[in-house]
Amino acid sequence: xxxxxxxxxxxxxxxxxxxxxxxxxxxxxxESAYRGDSSRAGWTTEADILDGQRTDPDGVAAVxxxxxxxxxxxxxxxxxxxxxxxxxxxxxxxxxxxxxRPALQGAGLGKVIIAEAERWVRAEWGAxxxxxxxxxxxxDLIAWYERRxxxxxxxxxxxxxxxxxFGIPRRAGLEFELLVKPLA
Length: 184
Hints:
By secondary structure, the protein is an alpha+beta fold.
């Protein structure tokens, strides 16, 4: 895969629904943004709290082919640079598997993507609220979402310790917090 030169002026991002053919590249993108040394090139990583995988081809394929959701692919100049999962859940939508190529993090692309995801779920599904879960120990990431209008609910779900499909925790006490944003 060709790399994006972060020093070149960036083309405007384009958005499209993922296809089954995108699954291998999506898995690689998600893994690079969350785990291992490659994730440390960006400003946000789970590498200090989790080892192992973030997802796998079966998990990504389930999102891509699911009836109630969509995996949104973000491209610049024809190259995949980011993605996010959108799932229709009645009057709200769920936002997950958000990954931006680590070398491109911190330049404003994430703000553009989340705004487009919110616009899309309002327009296509009539969603009145976006929800997500974030590992509560990731204070920097939660603060970023708060600046985008998401509120912490205090509603926690335990991390699935022992299920290596979600990673291998490097410490005890990990849990997910529900964040919510009303969509105008």
